[in-house]
Each structure stands twice: as C-alpha cells, then as structure tokens.
C-alpha cells in the first residue's frame, strides 16, 4: 500500500505567478516524458522484475516519481494563483484556461492529454531497463529545455533539483542493468527471458 | 525553530536517508553506506517527532483535527 506524507520532497515557494511558465512546465506533469508516466512506468514494470534489487529499485524510484508529480503540480498551482483576466489574455495561457481554468490537468505543453501510450511495460527485464534508462534521459532533456526558457530562481531551483534526480535515477538503473546481466549468460544475454521463463 | 526552518532541515535529512536507501538497493553489501543511512534515519525520526509535536501530523492521523490544518504541501509558506 501507499501512505501519504503531507510535505514536498523539496520546498517550493514561488512569489511571482507566470501562466506561460505553468503551461511549459505542465509537460512534466502529464507530457510524454513527465512524472505521471514515470511513476506509472516503474510501478507497473516492477511486477515482472525477476531480481530482489530490481523489485526494490523500481518500487523506490516509482514512489519518488509520485513525489515529483506532486512537486510539478505545486509549481503549476503556484504559477497560476491569483491571475487577473488581463494576465490570462496577454500571457498566452488562454488555450489552457478555456479547458481547465487554473486546475492542474495532466497534458503536454502543447495540450495533448496524458496517454499510457507514452510508457511501456514489456515483461522483459532488459527491455524494461533500457526503456527506463531512456526515460530518465528524456526527462533530463525536458528539464534542461525548461531551464533554457525559465528565468525565475523560485522556479529554477526546484526544476534543477528534479533534473538532478533524473541523473541519479539513470545511474541506479545503469547499476540495475549490470546486476541483471551479471546473472545472465554472458555469451548471450537473450538466451532466455528471466521475467517470463526462469532458468532452471 | 519556526516551521519553514524545521521543515527544510527535516527534508534535508530525509533526502540524505532516501538517497542512501536507493543506493543500497543496488549496493546491498556496502556496510559503510548502511551505517550512514542508519545515522540519517535516526536523525530523521527525531526531527519528524519534533515537527509533528509543534506543527501537526505529516502522515494521516485523526487523534486530533490537525490533519486538516493549512498549509498543504502545495501552499506557499
């Protein structure tokens, strides 16, 4: 089961609302490389993970991603709090506003609603871990792009924290891949799928 | 200590413990890391108790009505 903790993983206190920033950062809530996809990917993949270290790691990283989803939602909320009609019209936020007002909704920056097609759970340890390594780098690039577009230090600091977590997760998944291949036939890693047919 | 300062300290210690916890997923035999983890965990439990005593529960609890009190994590503090 999961139990909630009433705090953020990293503090967020944004003084100046900026709806355009909110629209850009929304992509890390429900976009193609966002935190919702990340948490669903890892928490779904862990059922077919064959080794104890990998079950633990997917559970822990998947759980941390739920905390990151809450951080990105908090950034969106604080960036759109107390907006005037004029600010909404002038900022380019009107297309988000017409569908969601200032509610936090999982979609990409371009407005495409979240879809599970962004993720894969393939039931093959090597395939899933390579998907995870790629996912961490895609999220890291998205955070880099956000940092290119956003100047406000109140927003940049938590985004920099989230970017750094992608790098740490990538490192852990790399170690997980090594732990997996160490248990396979070094002459042919694909001789059998340990997630599906255990080696006798 | 005020709420913001204590929460920042608690989060920093919790983060250090969490980072070591995930490291130990892939390095379960690293006893030095495990000792460091245990030190941070002890400090985290102490700070969490201190925080909850002054500012209400961090995990869902209804022995008082403080669970419903502001601020929520997404509020500016």
CATH architecture of chain A: Up-down Bundle
In the residues of chain B, how many domains can be counted?
1
What's the helix count of chain B?
Answer: 2
| Assigned CATH class of chain A | Mainly Alpha
Report the order of strands and helices of chain B: HH
**Percentage of β-strand residues of chain A:** under 5%
Mean pLDDT of chain A: 96
Number of helices of chain A: 8
- Nearest-angstrom radius of gyration of chain B? 15 Å
Can you tell me the residue ranges of chain B where pLDDT is under 50 for at least 5 consecutive residues? none
Structural class of chain B: mainly alpha
- Judged by helices, strands and strand pairing, the structural class of chain A is mainly alpha
Assembly state (oligomeric): heterodimer
What helical percentage do the residues of chain A reach? Answer: 55-70%
Count of the domains of chain A: 1
Q: Please state the average pLDDT score of chain B.
A: 96
Portion of residues within helices of chain B:
55-70%
Please indicate the percent range of residues of chain B in DSSP E strands (runs of 2 or more).
under 5%
Number of strands of chain B: 0
The biggest sheet of chain B, with number of strands, parallel, antiparallel or mixed sense and barrel status, is: none
Describe the fold and architecture:
With 200 residues, chain A is mostly helical. Chain A has a single domain, classed as Ferritin, core subunit, four-helix bundle (Ferritin, Up-down Bundle), CATH 1.20.1260. Helix content of chain A is 60%, strand content 0%. Chain A has helices at residues 19-25, 27-30, 35-45, 52-79, 85-91, 94-100, 125-149, 153-182. In chain A, α3 packs antiparallel against α4, α4 packs antiparallel against α8 (153-182) and α7 (125-149) runs antiparallel to α8 (153-182). The relative contact order of chain A is 0.19. Chain B has one domain (3-68). Chain B contains two helices and no strands. The interface between A and B is medium-sized, with 29 and 25 residues.
